[in-house]
Specification:
Helix content: 40-55%
Number of helices: 11
Oligomer: single chain
Order of helices and strands: HHHHHHHHEEEEHEEEEHHEEEEE
Largest sheet: 13 strands, mixed
Distance between the termini: 83 Å
Strand content: 15-25%
Number of strands: 13
Amino acid sequence: MSDKTNTRKNVRIISFALAACIIFGGATYSGYALANRYRTSLEYTYQRALNDLSDYVSNLETTLTKGIYANTAPQQYGISAKLLRDAGGAKTALGQLPLSDVELDNVNKFISQVGDFASYLSTKLSKGEAITQEEFDNLQKLGNYAKILNLDLRDMQARFDDGTMEIGQAVTVMGNLSQETENQKEPYFNSGFHEMNEGFTDYPTLIYDGPFSDHITRMKSKMLEGSDSVSESDAKNIASEFVGTSSEQMNATEASAGNLPVYNFSGEQYAIAVTRAGGMVAYMINTREIGEPAMEFGQAAGKAQEYLKHHGMDQMKESYYVTANGVCTINYAYQQDGVVYYSDLVKVGVALDTGEVVSYNATGYLMNHTKRDLPGDILSVEKARQSVSPKLTIEKEGLAMTPTAGLNEVLCYEFQCVSESGDKVMVYINAQTGLEEQIFILLMTDGGVLVM
């Protein structure tokens, strides 16, 4: 081979190598630029979320202050609506920030409680009821904490506005702190929210009818109140008898405290909990593998009813159900003297391959079941019907004790209706006031009945 041929070959190799380097370098630069744009975009999202959160909390502080002085129903109603909107916006903004649940728990609860309390006041005003002095005091309490939160957020904004550190950078540094460096000064974004969250641990108790009311987290079982405690050994025997196995095949695991303290046990394919007070089975799960479905909902419901009756719960009315992974889970509510008590809920899961009950959850029943005294001054069903929309045709009707958002109860007439377009609609009319308490739309799907 001649020297000229070798030279041409070397030139081609060098050219190809240079081209590859240029392409690789271009790709690297392009990737770097793309990553940089993504990082910048993400940082912009964080900054905007922090600014939005600060603005919403500032609005909450102002509106809560106005609420203390509002003296007429239209003005109070408008203030409640604005609080609800701004609390929703604050929760959305808070959810866009790169923070853990631990750093957000109490702050998130505060914002949720503002929105929930506003919704409660709005509902009360729509019924023609007046805001009480205690509720005005609650508005002031919420306003005081909104002021503290607003100042903390403004301080945090100022620390990042100078550009010395980005929010995303602070979060990354925080995540990379090792045990050896954990005592070093933390990036302010994380530590700031942590301190902010800790500042709400002494948050005042608010009692009202809403899902974030403090009384809910302190609820104890109504059914088991005053019941004698059972030993772990006795609870183990109760658990094994419930699933039809020997106590030797049951192993005790760590007990649970909380609102419904229980002993926990596990077997070859079972997990089961028995209440420490009263020795009642709270839940049971059979973890066996489920085969191909061989039965329909009607057959599964029959198996569930037999199961409940076998365990002494024969006054239960079938409610909604859902089917997933070969198991049909049916909700049952306690029924007595023609009244359905939806708080007293038991869920039974039936395997569609054999009809065996593979899950049982009586937590709702154990927490809420008690003797109720029904009000005597209720409307006639004919009067209650007048509150149902003329666009609906009533198919079934009856009395039901329904839970409110705050886990209280109200006696209602339950009307199962169908609309002109074929929608299945459940309407609940307060049996004393005649006002609509709740409206649900039922969606019939292959997987069961969905409630909206």
